[in-house]
Amino acid sequence: MPKTEENNQWGLQLANENQRENLLNWWRQLQNNTGNRAELRRCHSPEDAAAKADSFRVYNIIGHHYSIQAAAAIAGLLAHIKPESEFDKTPFGKKLSSIKEGGEKPVFSESRFRHLLKSRNWNDFYTNMRRAVVVLDGRVHPLTIVDIILRWDKEQKPDYITNPAYSLRFRLSQEYYTEIIKREEKK
Question: What is the pLDDT of residues 110-153, one digit of tens each?
Fold first, then answer.
């Protein structure tokens, strides 16, 4: 099936509205289940999270054409997302490049951002994403994180071919560096 620009837009990895709503409902319920949420927050890898029942709940929601690593990463990372974040539509890369309060440097340093982009496997990706979500104090829209994870999952498949301008790395870089350049130009 040929890829179109529309297929590469943010938020379309879960194109089915029911899946998005079911995933948000699962996440809302997780907010009230402090035991399960705490277990998932302590997971340091997708493998750790895959040993939790909530990863399989997520797997059943997103569909079996995504990997269990993706479902486990979603479960583990969404456990760090704060409830009020559901209303924040700020792009992830832009949030990472925002300035620390009372400072001049981005909340997520350029070095850490490059490490995120260079993630080579699920453990690296999960660790770097977890670090980013924690630095942002869990204030990221849950479906933004889901979209990033599912894009990562898709792009890791050996038969995946894409225009680099639509890749996850390019999109995150564009969001991150556009904000940095705007600030530099204002100086």
Answer: 999 999 999 999 999 999 999 999 999 999 999 999 999 999 99
Residue 87 tokens, joined: 């209303």
SS3 content of the chain, % helix, strand, coil (to 5): 65, 0, 35
**Cα distance between residue 58 and residue 62, in whole Å:** 6
Domains of the chain: 6-186 (1.10.520.40)
Q: Please provide the distance, in angstroms rounded to a whole number, between the alpha carbons at the two ends of the chain.
A: 47
**Residue 20 to residues 3, 16, 27, 99, 146: CA-CA distances in angstroms?**
21, 7, 11, 31, 9
What CA–CA distance (Å, rounded) separates 175 from 33?
Answer: 34
Q: What pTM, to 2 d.p., does this model score?
A: 0.90
Tokens of 150: 């599912």
Q: How far are the Cα atoms of 59, 67, 108, 110, 138 from residue 26, in angstroms, in the given order?
A: 11, 18, 28, 33, 17
For residue 124, which phi and psi values (nearest 5 degrees)? -60, -45
From the list 57, 63, 52, the residue with the least C-alpha distance to 19 is: 63
* 3-state SS, residue 99: strand
Distance CA 102, CA 45 (A): 33
Tell me: the pLDDT tens digits for 7-30? 334 556 887 899 999 999 999 999
